[in-house]
Amino acid sequence: MKKKKIAAAAVSAVLLAAVSLAMSSVSRSLDDQNMAERWKGGELDYAQVSVFYPQRVHPYTERDTESLRNTIKEKIKEGAFRPENEGAEIWIDAWCSAASVSGVSRYNEDNGKTETVGSDYSVTGVGGRFFEFHPMKLINGNYIYESELDNHRAVLDKQAAWDMFSSFDITGMNFILNGVKFEVAGVVDPGDNRNIKKAYPAAPMIYIHYSALEETMLDDSLLCYEAVIPDPVTNYARNIILENFGVNTMTETENDEDPEKKLDVVIVQNTDRYSVSKLWKGLREFSSIAVSDRSIAYPYWENAARMTSVTMEILFLLALVSALLLFVICVSEICRLYANRKWHLKDFLEDMMYKYTYKKRTSDYITSSADTGEKSRYDQ
Questions:
Q1: Pick from 239, 269, 299: which residue ends a domain?
Q2: Cα distances (Å, whole numbers) of residue 215 to 177, 207, 211, 219
Q3: Segment holding 116, helix H or strand E
Q4: Which of 366, 363, 368, 364 is nearest to 378 (CA)?
Q5: Does residue 23 sit within a domain?
Q6: Domain tally for the chain?
Q7: Which region among 172-181, 231-240, 364-373 has the lowest average model confidence (pLDDT)?
Q8: How many Cα atoms are found within 13 Å in the side-chain-facing hemisphere of 107?
Q9: Which of the residues 20, 67, 136, 293 has the least number of beta carbons within 10 Å of its own beta carbon?
Q10: Which residue has the higher pLDDT, 23 or 360?
């Protein structure tokens, strides 16, 4: 029986260690969720917060991001935050929209004609520092940046590049999207992560400047806004976003409903989304994971993050079971050793009391005899 307990304890310990390593690896597998860690350069803590917008009659647009950005700037100014390095930025953000087109055209140098290539394409309009939040692997060329003077540059994923040009070495080549000419800045690979592959759109992806959407007559409804903001105390960054949408977090109590549920947007704090407290909350709400009360189409990276959350919660449950089993085995073994002990606390205390009282009585007797001048029986 003892050998079985030792074997069970060893298996539990090994399983707990393996699951812990797996959780650490999985939690770091999505670069899209770890922008705050990459941005942090000193002692000041940061948090990455995302806002996902609903599909509605009067959609959110880039004008709404200006209001949100102003709120963040004011709060950072009030907090008197300063960058670690002189001239560096204290915070960073990005936003995007999603649309689709039935085809694009390119110039055929062989016959001098314009021809339609491919079928359906997904088009993502990006603003801010989008590719710093989503650092996809560059196969060729470069990303596009908000600071560029020419907003007619685009990044293609490898599937779009192959469909249009049957090659990845296509930097500087041109294509036409809804009558607007774009130059290829680079080609990217979304990555090998299993959940990213599952969530990534089936249609080839084209990334263009958000400011070019109007010219191409594509939908400019906001899909997502992301920011990395100083977070000196828990939920400081998230509360800035909530306050922008009219939620006063200072007046809430523990019994109040989650303030996010009052909004038509979904606010996610990407940083620490796989922490123990978040995973425990996810386990308690696991039955409602498929329930959604908002008409929001999440981008592929958020869908991948949510699939990863399910994986992390399952691993966390395994870790809890392993830890509990190990704890029970250890406690039962301690109880067994205590029950079969060869000493007893009562006997130990009696021995201590006897030794202490015997020595004290002997000492007092000798001291008393010396004071009176009488000889003790030990001196006779």
A1: 269
A2: 10, 15, 8, 11
A3: strand 113-117
A4: 366
A5: no
A6: 2
A7: 364-373
A8: 10
A9: 293
A10: 23
Q: Does the pLDDT at position 338 exceed 80?
A: no
Whether the CB-CB separation of 214 and 177 falls below 8 Å is answered with: no
Q: Where do we find the tokens 């007619």? A: 152
- Position 377 scores a pLDDT of 45
Show the domain range for 64.
35-269
Element (H, E) at 268: strand 266-269
Cα–Cα distance between 228 and 271 in angstroms, integer?
9
Residue with tokens 């009030």: 78
Tokens for 217, please give them: 């007559």
Whole-Å CA distances, 214 to 55, 297, 325 = 18, 21, 60
Which strand (E) or helix (H) includes residue 324?
A: helix 300-339
For residue 345, give both structure tokens.
Answer: 């606390």
Residue 283 in domain: no
Express each pLDDT in 225-263 by its tens digit.
Answer: 999 999 999 899 999 999 999 887 766 555 555 667 778
Q: Is 80 helix (H, G, I), strand (E, B) or coil?
A: coil
